[in-house]
Amino acid sequence: MQSPTKSVRLPAGGGAYAGHVDTAPAWGRQRQPREKKMPVAAATLCLFLVLFTLSLPTVLAAAPNFQELALFYTNDVGGQTEPCG
Amino acid sequence: MGGLSKRATFLQDDWPPNLRVDAGNLFFDNNVIRYPQRLPQARITAQAIVEAYNQMGYDAVCVAGRDLAGGSAFLLELADRAHFPLLSANLVDNRGELLFPASVSLKRAGLRISLIGLTGEPGLGDAAPEELAILPWQEVLPALIQEIKPSSDLIILLSNLPPQTNRVIAEQHQDIHLLLQSGSTNHNMAPLLLNNTLISQVGHEGKYVGHLRLNWTASQKWQSSDNELLNLQKEYDRLDWLVSRVKKRGGPQIVYRDDEEKQAAFAEQQARHQKLAEKIKEAAGRSSVPQATFSHQFHPLQSSLADDPRINALLKDARQQANQLRRTRGLNNHLQEYSGSSSCRSCHEQIHQAWARTRHAAAYQTLTTRDQNNNQRCVYCHVTGLNQANAHLAAGLGDTLKAVGCEACHGPAAQHAAAPAEAPLPGLPSASLCLTCHSPEHDDSFNFDIDRAKVHPTTP
Questions:
Q1: CA distance B252 to B258
Q2: What are the pLDDT digits (tens) for B26-72?
Q3: Of residues B163, B113, B161, B109, the one with CA closest to residue B140
Q4: With a cut of 0.85, is the ipTM above it?
Q5: Chain B residues lying within 8 Å of A67, measured CB to CB
Q6: What's the CATH number of domain B4-220, 3.40.830.10, 3.60.21.10, 3.40.50.2020, 3.40.50.300?
């Protein structure tokens, strides 16, 4: 995104900037206060961080955290509790 | 080999988070169905088994067809005693209501695990007891899987259905991740991956414990679907067992002392073991979505394993209770045909003396020292004149029949003893007679041609 305080020289033939026309007067560009836009961006970022932090426990809880499982299995013991002799 | 007290010792090791399950046919053997006179003793044993499983911390047991041999009321009584659920999704009473829970959910190692039980037919051509019905799996399983799937990371089916049926289930339901079966074979069956279901089974009579180490992932898919990796895993499992066994016994310097060649071979196996572990890890890492892996062992419960004293005590108590039931006197006509080895002595003195030094002569003694002389599963192979059908008559045997005597091999000889010339004995026994007791399960090194000489050590 271009900075509103800087004028931009269009490359010959348009290039990457083709279609973009800066119509703002020079005085207007100079008077646009940078401080007015930054709080909006900062607030968005803060909001995002707050929402992310709040949702973190849910995200972590939802993520599977499986450990190794040992499975011991038997079958057909058929009443044999111990060897005969 | 085998036994509950050795299994309890094995399970006491310092294992990671684990699950303990039994796929059924736990309480009775086929002979209880064939010979109902054994049932009273078998019921006492079944109660002891439940208590032992409580102490071993089992998580679930499937109700199999053969477990119905004691009747539904007895099985429900066992379920009340058990600290673990008996499971069956298809065993219903005459009102069509389930007798036992169809499934159980529990959490272990961060996993939400669901266990399902399916009951098969009792076998030997017998139907389930009249008051019960076994529903076809198709009627219950699909709906049950749909019900438990959203709340399960891992679904395990304990199935007593025939192996062919289990394969169909595995092919149709990839949401069943593990299928542990009972009743299909007497031998250990290493895990077989079919579709997305791992199928396995342990040999009968509790001689081994199956042990799967699962690294389950959110993909809920087994990785080892390619044969190459599966083979690597199998080789790794084999070496893992060998390496851990040698380490447990004090290391190669102790196990293979004075044998440098074996020490060198072991070092090579150890290196291969480590290399395989890296290879398997590398293969697992190649997948974009990590998939589940496993390794597997069958642990033999060898006689060298210590007995758990608590389990030993409760088994002893059960044996004493069973002994109270043994007063079944009254020899039948069949036993009156036997005269006992002492009556052979007068004519066959030398042969009798030689036999008296053999293990056959002390066969009954080996049972009494272990307090197993009234165990109907054992006694008929340690005496003369009994078989599986009439083992309950053991208490009525005369002392002269309490050994594997002459007539155990040569047949009943009361008539021969009374009139030797008029009633000759039929002759030498065949290998099949010896194999009745010296079966591979009880004597895996038996060789008829070599071992028959041991019965008459002084005769050619």
A1: 10
A2: 999 887 777 877 888 899 999 999 999 999 999 999 999 999 998 89
A3: B161
A4: no
A5: 16-17, 109-110
A6: 3.60.21.10
